[in-house]
Amino acid sequence: TSEQIEHLHRRFKQLSRDQLTIRKENFDSIPDLEFNPIRGKIVHAFFDKRNLRPESDGLADEINFEDFLTIMSYFRPIEMNMDEEQLDRFRKEKLKFLFHMYDSDHDGKITLQEYRNVVEELLSGNPHLEKESARSIADGAMMEAASICVGQMGPDQVYEGITFEDFLKMWQGIDIETKMHVRFLNMETIAHCY
C-alpha cells in the first residue's frame, strides 16, 4: 500500500542517513540484527544482484530505494485475494531469496560446505555445541536432502548439492509464507541508536 511504501521510505532515509543509497555499513545501526547469528547473510542478501533483478549476478556496492523496496517485497505477507497461481509464484519468490542466502558462491547449488557454513553460523551462539557437532548436523541434513531429492543413492554416487528444484521439494508443506518476516523495520528501534 502507499502507506507501507511511505513507512519503508522513512526507514530507508533513517538507514541511509538521508542519502540516496544504502551501503552494507548502514545496517550496522540495526539493533535487531546485531545479535542475529546469520546477520552477515541477511545483509549480503540485500546487495545480492540475483535478488534485485532477474538474470543478474554479483554484489552491488550500494542499493537505492527502489532496490530496497524490491528486497522488502520478499517479506510481504500473503494477500487474501491471491489465487493459487499467485500464491505459488509468491512462495517461489520467497524461497528463491532464501536459496540465494545459502548459495554463497552463486553456482546454482547449495553444496555441503555452504550448508555447513550456514549451520555453523546459526549455532555459533551456543557455547555448548562444538564445531564438530554443528558439522554433523549439517552432514545429516544434507543426507536427508539427498534422500528427499534423489531417493536411494548407490554407494559410489555423490550428491553434488541442492538445486533450486531440490530446495522447493524440501520446503514443500512448510509454511514459509508466514514465517519469513523482518522485524528491524520498527521505526522506534533505530531512534535509540543516534
From TrEMBL:
Principal location class: other
Keywords for this protein: Calcium, Cell membrane, Cell projection, Cytoplasm, Differentiation, Lipoprotein, Membrane, Metal-binding, Myristate, Nucleus, Protein kinase inhibitor
Localisation per UniProt entry: Cell projection, Lamellipodium; Cell projection, Ruffle membrane; Cytoplasm; Membrane
BP-aspect Gene Ontology terms: cell differentiation
GO MF terms, alphabetically ordered: calcium ion binding; protein kinase inhibitor activity
Topology versus the membrane: Lipid-anchor
Ranges where the EF-hand domain occurs: 90-125
Gene Ontology, cellular component aspect: cytoplasm; lamellipodium; nucleus; ruffle membrane
UniProt record similarity statement: Belongs to the calcineurin regulatory subunit family. CHP subfamily.
Full protein name: Calcineurin B homologous protein 3
Organism: Nyctiprogne leucopyga
Gene label: Tesc
